[in-house]
Amino acid sequence: MVKILATGDWHGDMGRPATLAELAVKENVDIVLLGGDLVNAEKDTTNLIGPFLSKKLKVGFVWGNHDGPELADFWQNAYKISNLHGYGIMVGDVGFFGCGGANVGLDQFTEDEMFQYLLVGYEKVKSAKVKVMVTHVHPAGTIGEKFSRYVKGSKGVRKAIDVLQPNVHVTCHVHEAEGIEDKVGKTRIVHVGRNGKILTV
After folding, report:
1. Collapsing DSSP states into helix, strand and coil, what is residue 199?
2. CA separation for the pair 180, 173 (Å, rounded)
3. What is the phi/psi pair of residue 14, to 5°?
4. How far apart are CA 35 and CA 157, in angstroms?
5. CA distance 106 to 91
6. pLDDT in 10s for each residue of the chain, 201 residues
7. DSSP state, residue 180
8. What single string gives the DSSP state of each residue in 103-148?
9. Which residues make Cβ contacts (< 8 Å) with residue 116, sequence separation at least 6?
10. Pairing status of strand 3-7 against strand 187-191
């Protein structure tokens, strides 16, 4: 089994990372998953990743529509943490893969692009006993869409769930849905947010 702390949507809350890093240590997690939208409008990155690294925690992330690909490249290169966008990593017998960004914003992807990035990441972990898919945006046609009239789910992410059938899908984006779970087929969909959620898979 692998223990996870999954979180996202901090939007520049500089005190959040230290609190979550303490929680990760207390819970003895194997990996911290960051689901994007970590920065504020000014894209201030002060002390967002450092608290996790100082405690020797393994970190995987996808970027959100407020972060952007340039910031994701900076985090990956400067801190040597795992960018799961179109990529996959193994932790024990669990494979993690993902897609950053969203279907809104300046750096938005088409629905087909989002599916293709997830497909590429999946190929790197398809032999894993358990597969965890991580995206910022939530899938279309699921409970997450009911929490906001303005934030639409992704048809590309939903297609990935239907076709790839990961065991768990971790997503953020809709703040009001934090802590809510759903299920599509065999896939457990978990909406996480700024407070973090402990998962064991």
Report:
1. strand
2. 12
3. -65, -20
4. 14
5. 33
6. 999 999 999 999 999 999 999 999 999 999 999 999 999 877 888 889 999 999 999 999 999 999 989 999 999 999 999 999 999 999 999 999 999 999 887 778 999 999 999 999 999 999 999 999 999 999 999 988 888 777 789 999 999 999 999 999 999 999 999 999 999 999 999 999 999 999 999
7. -
8. SSSTTPPPHHHHHHHHHHHHHTTTT-SEEEEEESSPBTTSGGGGG-
9. none
10. unpaired
Amino acid at 51: P
Give which of 143, 187, 169 is closest to 33, Cα–Cα: 169
Structure tokens at 44: 């201030």
For tokens 């849905």, name the residue.
177
Tokens representing 21 are 């890093």
How is residue 94 written in tokens?
């669990």
83 to 27, 78, 151: CA distances (angstroms): 23, 12, 24
CA 178 to chain centre: 13
* Residue 54 three-state SS: helix
CA 172 to chain CA centroid, Å, is: 7
Q: For the chain, which domains are there?
A: 3-200 (3.60.21.10)
**Other Cβ atoms closer than 10 A to 167:** 16
